[in-house]
Amino acid sequence: MEVSRLRRIRHAFEYLGVRILVFALAWLPKRFALGLGLRIGDAWRLLDRRRRKTVRTQSADRLGLSPAEAKEFTRRNFRNLGVTLVEFARLSRLSLSDFAGLVDLAGLDGLIRKLLEEGRGVCFITAHFGNWEWCNWLSGVMGLSGGSIARPLDNPRLEMFVKGIREKNGLAIFDKRGAMRQALRTLRNNGVVGALIDQDAGAGGLMSPFLGCPASTITAPVELAMRSGSPILTVALKRTDGPGRRFVARYNPIPHRPCPHTNPKEEIRRLVDAVNADLSRLILEAPEQWFWIHRRWKNQGRNQ
User: Fold this and answer.
1) What is the pLDDT of residues 212-230, one digit of tens each?
2) Which whole-number Å values give the CA distances from 212 to 22, 58, 62, 154, 209, in the listed order?
3) Are the CB atoms for 58 and 73 separated by under 8 Å?
4) What contacts 24+ positions apart, CB below 8 Å, involve 162-167?
5) What is the pTM of this model?
6) Does residue 1 have a pLDDT over 60?
7) Average pLDDT over residues 131-150
8) With contact defined as beta carbons under 8 Å apart, do 304 and 208 qualify?
9) What is the pLDDT of residue 171?
10) Judging by beta carbons within 10 Å of its beta carbon (0-12, 13-18, 19+), is residue 53 exposed, middle or buried?
11) What does the buried/exposed string (b/e) look like for 180-208 if buried means 16 or more CB atoms within 10 Å of the residue's CB?
12) Is 234 helix (H, G, I), strand (E, B) or coil?
């Protein structure tokens, strides 16, 4: 059987499985679905030895945890991922008003409106923290237009389905492979652009401190802000345990502004270091809510 045909069959089963899972998680009673998310996280942790080891090792190194503390931290981290999956699935049935009732903007909307008065758009930079998928819908709550930069899934049918949920009440999704032109046009039209920069950027990334240790970091969002003159805001949605709202917007109220009269390479480094410092502070507020299964520091031995 041809490889392409096998791939199409696999993609079809993946798509069908995800559709069924999302439908079930979206329409189960909320309390039951969130409890199921905890069980999904537990099962993932037990079955995925490689990522379980990654979480334990990285959290112990970066947070100074003992072996027993790292073990318990790993359990909570995988549970957070399971709940995040359920919350994303439930976006498929939420209205924008339902979503708004679950999120405390904490003054973010007022700050953004003030920045947009400058006419240069706003560049949001966030991390895989709390529920990063919900961040895209914040734009709908605040009445903003623009796009988020994301890498498309390898499965085209699954990509269309997931993209539909992300864009339902949020920003458009710009394909990472050709996003710069779209994103630059959006910012110059006084729109907003969102991007994640907390994953390893490989050999082409800039080494910048992240949670206290150098990590290869993507620079494209910062370069985009420099070309457009847009202010940069670091933003994340932190899950809370209190009654009522389940998330609160966390952000640095002082935006980072590109300086046009500085050496470009030095300015890129300054801005990347500043954003990584912001994200590190946010993550340390609730470290179990970050994406520790990713090998963030695998290129830390390089010099740059």
Assistant:
1) 999 999 999 999 999 999 9
2) 37, 12, 7, 33, 6
3) no
4) 162/18, 165/22, 165/88, 165/91, 165/92, 166/133, 166/136, 167/136
5) 0.92
6) no
7) 90
8) no
9) 86
10) exposed
11) bebbbebbeebbbbbbbbbbbbeeebbbb
12) strand
Can you give the pLDDT at residue 303?
46
Q: What is the mean pLDDT of the chain?
A: 92
Token couple for 237 = 């949605």
* Segment 7-51, tens digit of pLDDT: 888 989 999 999 999 999 999 999 999 999 999 999 999 999 999
C-beta separation of 296 from 283 below 8 A: no
- Between CA 247 and CA 221 the distance in angstroms is 25
Kindly give, in sequence order, each residue whose CB lies less than 8 Å from that of residue 274, ignoring residues fewer than 6 positions away: 256
R_g of the chain computed on alpha carbons: 19
According to the model, what pLDDT value does residue 241 have?
75
106 touches 250 (CB < 8 A) = yes
* Maximum alpha-carbon separation in the chain: 59
Q: How far apart are CA 73 and CA 60, in angstroms?
A: 9
Dihedral angle sign, alpha carbons of residues 12, 15, 21, 24: negative
Query: Which DSSP symbol is given to 279?
Result: H
